[in-house]
Amino acid sequence: MKTSSEDAIAYNVVPFAWPKGYQSDGIHAGLREGKDMGWIYSEVPAQAAGTYTTNQFQAAPTKLTKQTINIKHELQAVVMNSANANSVTGDQGMIDAKKVQQLVANKLNIEQQLVGVASTGIIGVPLPMDIMEHGISELELKDNTDVTKAILTTDKHAKTVSVQLTVENKPVTISGFCKGSGMIHPKMATMLGFVVTDAKISDGLLQPMLSHEVDSTFNQITVDGDTSTNDMVVTLANGAAGNTEITEQSADYPAFVSAFNKVLSELAKDIAKDGEGSTKLVEVNVKNAANHDDAQKVSKAIVGSNLVKAAIFGEDANWGRIIAAIGQTNAKVDINHTSVWLNGLALVDNSASANFDEAEMKKTLESNTITILVDLNSGTATGQAWGCDLTYNYVRINASYRS
């Protein structure tokens, strides 16, 4: 699998809209206040791929969707609900997930094995099937984007992005939406993400491309270090754009992968920025690492450190916490020549204080976005991760999640 590149970018970020051949809906079914159920539908069976939570208590809908995609790597619809995770619900959980799958298939007059199921919400409570069945009966095929709101839990806003590019002189759109605010520490876990495109892609290419790009995007965000039981990223490609299928040898393949990565990375950053109770987005970039794995490991260790997160919330340039987070990893580090910058200001120079201006550093820490750059001086590899600060409000939200 080739890596994506930002060089010679040939895509544009555009207002959110569905690609050709997709319809959706989002409704209030009665699982909670506001919209709580939705679906997305492709007019024809679409190639499908997914990545899934690594939590050992993987929820029934997540298991079912993985099994369904693995049958013939196609889906035509995905139905989703919030408020109830249908997780740790015993054998009944899978029975209910399959019932949801069948109800949707019957309504759309498609094969049951073309329906994915996604749920998010409270763990350990059986699905209220009377509400689910009524909700499915109310879903319609529309051009609205209400489904992007129906999956939210503690999120402050819907998270969406669309990009367009040209493939063989034909316009191609890639659109994605996701939810995630707490229990964010993917590998792959703690969020739901859906990416759909009207591009035609060769058989067998979608899954490795998704897995590769998820590793550098969704798997590089963290809010609280907890992984959930339900979550996944699913992507569909229905070919409605009319292009000749994209292969790894296609001239437009690098541009398509770059556009696909843009969708995933923007959604990942939006999740980090919307972390429960957060006030700041934190981005960590690592350079001159011995290898890519080391760079990714160090960047995620820093954004995942509660001490670093708390210092950023308190607007305290306590660089020792960043150094400590780096040192906790097994990455190769030149311990005498490591340097750190915060929003472009030198914080650590060759493993010693850069004698920065405290007032200037305090001022930049008031920003809504904090960018930390680390030079490990151990090679040429780079890495990146995203997170947020740790606030008093995070505890308040999670102390009363069920009430």
Automatic annotation (TrEMBL):
Active-site residues from the entry: 190 (nucleophile)
Site (described: Involved in the stabilization of negative charge on the oxyanion by the formation of the oxyanion hole): 120-121
Subcellular location: Cytoplasm
UniProt xrefs under SUPFAM superfamilies: DmpA/ArgJ-like (SSF56266)
Pathway membership: Amino-acid biosynthesis; L-arginine biosynthesis; L-ornithine and N-acetyl-L-glutamate from L-glutamate and N(2)-acetyl-L-ornithine (cyclic): step 1/1; Amino-acid biosynthesis; L-arginine biosynthesis; N(2)-acetyl-L-ornithine from L-glutamate: step 1/4
Annotated binding of substrate, by residue: 153, 179, 190, 276, 398, 403
EC number(s) stated in the UniProt entry for this protein: 2.3.1.35, 2.3.1.1
Gene3D superfamilies, A to Z: ArgJ beta chain, C-terminal domain, L-amino peptidase D-ALA esterase/amidase
EC class name: transferase
Sorted UniProt keywords: Acyltransferase, Amino-acid biosynthesis, Arginine biosynthesis, Autocatalytic cleavage, Cytoplasm, Multifunctional enzyme, Transferase
GO MF terms, alphabetically ordered: L-glutamate N-acetyltransferase activity; L-glutamate N-acetyltransferase activity, acting on acetyl-L-ornithine as donor
One Pfam family it belongs to: ArgJ
UniProt cross-references to InterPro entries, sorted A to Z: Arg_biosynth_ArgJ, ArgJ-like_dom_sf, ArgJ_beta_C
Protein's GO biological process: L-arginine biosynthetic process; ornithine biosynthetic process
Reactions that this protein is recorded to catalyse: N(2)-acetyl-L-ornithine + L-glutamate = N-acetyl-L-glutamate + L-ornithine; L-glutamate + acetyl-CoA = N-acetyl-L-glutamate + CoA + H(+)
Marked site positions, Cleavage: 189-190
A GO CC term attached to the entry: cytoplasm
Keyword Kinase part of the UniProt annotation: no
Principal location: cytoplasm
Subunit and interaction comment: Heterotetramer of two alpha and two beta chains.
Function of the molecule: Catalyzes two activities which are involved in the cyclic version of arginine biosynthesis: the synthesis of N-acetylglutamate from glutamate and acetyl-CoA as the acetyl donor, and of ornithine by transacetylation between N(2)-acetylornithine and glutamate.
UniProt cross-references to PANTHER family, sorted A to Z: ARGININE BIOSYNTHESIS BIFUNCTIONAL PROTEIN ARGJ (PTHR23100), ARGININE BIOSYNTHESIS BIFUNCTIONAL PROTEIN ARGJ, MITOCHONDRIAL (PTHR23100:SF0)
Family to which this protein belongs: Belongs to the ArgJ family.
Name of the featured protein: Arginine biosynthesis bifunctional protein ArgJ
Lineage of origin: Bacteria, Bacillati, Bacillota, Bacilli, Lactobacillales
Encoding gene (name): argJ
